[in-house]
Design goal:
Number of strands: 14
Order of helices and strands: EEEEHEHEEHEEEHEEEHEH
Distance between the termini: 31 Å
Largest sheet: 8 strands, parallel, barrel
Number of domains: 2
Number of helices: 6
Strand content: 25-35%
Structural class: alpha/beta
CATH topology of the largest domain: TIM Barrel
Helix content: 25-40%
CATH class of the largest domain: Alpha Beta
CATH architecture of the largest domain: Alpha-Beta Barrel
Amino acid sequence: MAQDTFIITLPPRQLPLLQGWRVTPAHLAYRLGPGAHLFRSEGTAPPKGGLMVVDDQEFSPLAPTGPLCQEVIRECQARSFSGAILDFENCLPPLEQIAARLDEQFARRGWTLLVPERYGAHAPHSRVMIPSALSGGSLQKRLEEALERFGESRVVLALEKRAEDFYLPSPTGSGQPLTDQELAELKRRLSPSVFFSGELCARYFTYMSRENGAHFVLFDDGDTLRHKTEVARRLGIRTFLAPWAEIGPYAAQTGIQRRQEQRAGRR
């Protein structure tokens, strides 16, 4: 029977939280900074093993990309990383070049590279992250389309515990993000009837506001995250990416297994 692979993102200082769980850590410690250099977060011991997560929040698009890619390679070698996650929010030609260069060099070394969906065509050896959160349509159809486009071996379901408040109608398909506390307060104040959408694999409720009319609130919990992993498994997707800050309380519910502990004093 095929086994699941759970890649868990978290800051290196929180690594002890993963003790006892069968997961691969992905360290939230790197970014592409000014001058096209790789920077590691300050104040933490250098991470070791697992994957590195690289964001592009301070990326300079005018600098050459070749030396930067070599910095990433050297850091992976120095920290015994088995790969990297490119957490790129922007879509720029230099970032596409970085994804393509790293894809080729990682593949040559047998390392794993995960990229956002928009970069999948630029990095043909990479794994492609498909977000689990939808505001419309069907998660199953969304994943089926990704599988047809990229192939079963490349698709990774990126689990997200989301909560959003949408105005109705919602022409953009985007809502106002809600914190756990804001969602709990809204539910306490309204006492709404909550429903489950099998297509979205999410819970929802509606309400009316005197100020701005009809609202639609869509949110996740441990049960919806479990449903999303089940949909993926039925389609042959067995690799999942998730932030520990969101999935930690629901780790067992989503299918993350405990490591078998060695018996003390084994005779």
